[in-house]
Design brief:
Elements lengths: L1 H17 L4 H6 L2 H23 L6 E8 L9 E7 L6 E7 L13 H9 L3 E5 L11 H15 L1 H4 L1 E10 L2 H5 L1
Parallel strand pairs: 3-4, 3-5
Antiparallel strand pairs: 1-2, 2-4
């Protein structure tokens, strides 16, 4: 695997050496970028089919597409998973999906979130802006805005703000 990726990067490096004006190509249109796009398209196909086969836990309520930044951007929405009939404030887990900062959305972790909610947590799954539409560290700003939203809306949503946890997978782990 490492040899394959080293080879891909060498192909892009050779392109720049032979065409000094191609430096911008590496960022958006180089072979590595094209290979990454193929990989993410495959992952999207895989995740879509995987999610179709999975079911959320029974006994969980979901509030979907709540804006944590009110700008109409779908990447500034979050979903909240609760145990049904929760009557007291509960610990909160903020979940940040993976995807290399350029792929996936909050729904990819819906089954995981529902399983945690079934065990007595409130789970907040967030979207964040994706590359190449934005550049890093825009995602960090989005995540920080979601943290502020949780802090500012704890009372309204039954969050126990003394017990807030952050989780993420892959790029989401880095952002967490």
């Amino acid at each position: 695997f490492k040899n394959i990726f080293d080879g891909l990067f060498k192909l892009d490096a050779d392109t720049v050496k032979t065409d000094p004006t191609a430096d911008g190509v590496l960022k958006n249109d180089g072979f590595v970028a094209s290979a990454a796009e193929v990989l993410w398209n495959y992952m999207d196909y895989y995740d879509t089919n995987r999610l179709k086969k999975q079911t959320e836990s029974a006994g969980v309520t979901v509030k979907k597409d709540i804006p944590y930044i009110s700008d109409g951007n779908k990447y500034h929405l979050l979903d909240i998973y609760y145990p049904e009939n929760a009557a007291e404030k509960l610990p909160v887990i903020i979940d940040i999906h993976g995807g290399g900062l350029m792929y996936a959305e909050k729904e990819v972790n819906r089954v995981y979130a529902s399983r945690l909610a079934k065990r007595g947590y409130i789970v907040v799954c967030i979207n964040y802006s994706l590359c190449p539409d934005v550049t890093y560290p825009t995602q960090v700003s989005d995540v920080m805005a979601s943290y502020r939203w949780v802090a500012e809306n704890g009372e309204a949503y039954g969050f126990d703000l003394d017990r807030v946890f952050v989780a993420g997978d892959s790029a989401g782990g880095q952002l967490a």
